[in-house]
Specification:
Layout (H helix, E strand, L loop, with lengths): L5 E7 L2 H13 L5 E4 L11 E6 L3 H15 L1
């Protein structure tokens, strides 16, 4: 059975930013997972990470960079 090796490609402290990034990547055909590492009591501590399969990391980073360039 194949195991997917996930790697983080985006970090933020705002859930809506992580959800937007996940949505953009999934619409481009890249599976994603959000890992919330924030403290439940104090949301100022910790980050929310968007992870993609390691073999799609470069493609995902390219999409992120393109989206960033489009908003500037």
């Amino acid at each position: 059975m194949d195991q997917i090796k996930w790697t983080p490609i985006f970090k933020t402290n705002r859930m809506f930013e992580a959800e937007l990034m996940k949505n953009n990547l999934e619409h481009s055909g890249i599976p994603c997972a959000i890992i919330n590492k924030q403290d439940r009591s104090y949301l100022a501590f910790g980050e929310i990470e968007v992870h993609v399969p390691e073999e799609q990391k470069e493609e995902a980073l390219s999409i992120i960079n393109q989206k960033s360039a489009d908003t500037e």
